[in-house]
Design goal:
666 residues; alpha/beta; Rossmann fold; Arc Repressor Mutant, subunit A; six-stranded parallel beta sheet; three-stranded antiparallel beta sheet; disordered N terminus
Length: 666
């Protein structure tokens, strides 16, 4: 059936087994059970137990298959992108007889459980039958136990509440003591309910699905599996299943959509069905409009497909609808108020695959470690490597839908700016926190927090230039130029011009680089800022040298060196001596080059500038190589390599190894 461009499918076959009339209370299928049927376009239309599914028991009874057991997937493609995972799960259940699956809502835990129940190998091992319990947030434990008793053909003793919690599971456990059944406990939210339903005997097996990591770990230990989202390739296959023509003319948009929903199977399937409805019109314009519609995060969250015809409890409408929003909302409203507030605060962070440090998460959410762990247990926040977290794009979208958290945004800005100031010289640390810093600078710009933007970019732009992130550096520097009209001082203007000069130089625009540097140098002299004047003189000297004007180059370097010596700027003195040594070598004056390098090397060794020491040793090695002193050159290179390895400079390591190769060939 198609309505409003959305394909509606009947997900569950109606149950007509007359034995169910004996059950006082029948639980509705869980929401995760429903999601499983959204992962494929069709399911088998009925669930008769074929003769091959039966296995004679000692008492002459046939195998029992729960009427609530969902039918197998009939689609020829099966669960796309899950072949290897299914194989691993199948092997583990056959080996250990107990597995648990946990992960994001809509990631396909129930779908995998259904596929496992219809595995020929699993049915052959557990040939006495399968029991299925779809729980959900409000589990009907009494109904599940009574129904299992009916399926197994036993009468449970009539006892008053709460005595049934001990007598009924024990009665069922005794029945299964010598039988080989597979039990599936699907969509569990409470550990005590899982314990009550874990009634299998020593020859039985049990599969648990849950959103909660701690429930899975307690149940299965090392056999608890975190179910990942789909890889991009499999995600594209799911998204374009009903509209394959999209890959012909909207390939990039398709890939972007898959990444926007983080490969979540439920989201991909909902979007796939929506696109399929538009594809049936055979009008490319409508299909393109549908793609544009799906690029809006709110529209994706609200996209709905009916659950179909199934037997619900009286509190649930028969044709309730499933959306990504409704799926995540179940987990959200299950949280405490403090955890809900923390999740909303997390919406200011960048989504997975960007890593969020533990300190940043605590600072921005102002939540306790226990609250953060609660979010992890609920599957809404993922623990990555030690001290880092990940949050799925759709969880971010949902949290943002709930409403902005201005205080959290302000805390992120302050955390990012303070962090980059505190670690300005530690490139490795800043690289690890770069996604958070960039988010902080983005919010500072959007919120017109110009002072914070200027502070942050001042210290972060040099790293962006070092890493080669030129487009991003240009964007932030242009924003800083705008911000300086409202905040900042003359020193900030000089620093901006120096950084713009560095960017233009890196991009090969020497004229623009020289212009920015000259503007900055003029301001530096006007404000008596000798430190920045030295930096800008060095920049102008490098530009002149690369353009072959060696006379001007030497004049600029010498002018800068005089200022640097007067101000005691050791690092700049070392850099300028190195540059003068390079200039002397270019002129063929090896003696002067060695003199400049050795003076610089002495200072670098005295003050512990290991990166510069490595570079100077390499330059001395080059001079020795060009003079034919290969043994001396090799010694320089080896000393420089040890320092480069110590500082972790990959580029310097590569250069030194390459130079050592030249010496070896000579």
């Amino acid at each position: 059936m198609i309505a409003n461009g959305v394909i509606y499918v009947d997900i569950f076959p109606r149950r007509t087994d007359q034995n169910l009339e004996e059950i006082v209370e029948v639980s509705a299928p869980s929401q995760d059970e429903v999601f499983a049927f959204l992962l494929l376009p069709h399911t088998a239309s009925a669930l008769p137990v074929s003769s091959s599914d039966t296995c004679p028991l000692p008492g002459g009874n046939a195998a029992v298959y729960d009427p609530f057991l969902p039918p197998p997937f009939a689609d020829k493609d099966g669960l796309l992108g899950r072949d290897l995972l299914l194989q691993q799960l199948e092997e583990r259940i056959l080996d250990t007889q107990r597995i648990a699956m946990h992960g994001l809502p809509g990631v396909g835990k129930t779908a995998l459980a259904i596929a496992l129940t219809h595995s020929a190998k699993i049915r052959a091992r557990f040939c006495d039958g399968i029991l299925w319990a779809g729980l959900g947030l409000h589990a009907h434990l009494l109904a599940e136990l009574r129904r299992w008793g009916t399926v197994l053909g036993i009468s449970l003793p009539q006892v008053a509440f709460p005595e049934f919690q001990e007598t009924w599971p024990q009665a069922l456990r005794e029945t299964l003591e010598e039988r080989r059944l597979l039990l599936v406990i699907d969509d569990a939210w409470q550990a005590d309910v899982v314990k009550m339903l874990d009634i299998g005997g020593p020859a039985c097996a049990c599969i648990l699905t849950t959103r909660f990591e701690h429930i899975a770990a307690h149940f299965a230990g090392e056999n608890a599996f975190l179910i990942p989202e789909l890889e991009d390739v499999a995600g594209v296959q799911v998204l374009t299943r009903f509209a394959p023509q999209l890959m012909e003319y909207e390939r990039e948009t398709v890939w972007d959509l898959v990444r926007a929903v983080g490969g979540l199977p439920l989201a991909l399937t909902l979007m796939s069905k929506y696109l399929g409805g538009q594809a049936l019109t055979h009008q490319p314009r409508r299909l393109r409009s549908a793609l544009a519609y799906l690029q809006n995060s709110k529209q994706r969250l609200h996209l709905q497909v009916p659950q179909g015809s199934c037997e619900w409890s009286s509190s649930q409408p028969e044709r309730a609808e499933v959306s990504i929003e409704s799926v995540i909302a179940l987990s959200y409203f299950y949280l405490s108020e403090s955890a809900q507030k923390a999740l909303r605060a997390l919406s200011v962070f960048p989504a997975k695959p960007k890593l969020l440090s533990h300190n940043a998460v605590l600072a921005v959410t102002e939540a306790s470690v226990e609250i953060i762990q609660m979010l992890c247990d609920a599957g809404l926040l993922e623990q990555a490597r030690a001290g880092y977290y990940l949050i799925h794009p759709l969880i971010i979208d949902y949290a943002r839908l709930l409403g902005a958290e201005p205080a959290a945004t302000a805390r992120l800005i302050m955390y990012g700016v303070d962090f980059v100031e505190a670690h300005a010289v530690d490139a490795e640390v800043l690289e690890q926190e770069s996604a958070i810093i960039l988010a902080a600078l983005h919010y500072a710009w959007e919120g017109r927090r110009y002072a914070e933007l200027i502070r942050g970019v001042r210290h972060f732009a040099p790293l962006l230039l070092r890493w080669g992130w030129y487009r991003l550096a240009d964007q932030l520097l242009q924003q800083t130029a705008t911000a300086l009209r409202h905040a900042g001082d003359r020193q900030d203007e000089i620093i901006l011009r120096e950084q713009l000069s560095t960017l233009a130089h890196a991009q090969g625009n020497y004229g623009q680089s020289r212009e920015y540097a000259q503007e900055g140098l003029m301001l530096a002299y006007e404000t008596r800022n000798e430190a920045l004047a030295v930096t800008l003189l060095t920049r102008l000297g490098v530009i002149a040298q690369e353009q072959g004007d060696y006379t001007r180059t030497e004049a600029l370097y010498q002018e800068g060196l005089v200022l640097a010596r007067a101000q005691g700027m050791t690092e700049q003195i070392i850099i300028l001596l190195k540059n003068l040594g390079v200039l002397a070598k270019k002129r063929g004056d090896y003696a002067q080059a060695q003199k400049d390098y050795r003076e610089a090397l002495t200072l670098a060794s005295l003050f512990g500038y290991d990166a510069l020491r490595s570079l100077l040793l390499m330059n001395l090695g080059v001079v020795a190589t060009e003079q034919g002193a290969y043994a001396q050159a090799l010694t320089f290179y080896q000393e420089g390599l040890a320092l480069a390895q110590k500082t972790g400079s990959r580029e310097q390591i590569c250069l030194l190894l390459s130079n050592m190769g030249v010496v070896a060939d000579s």
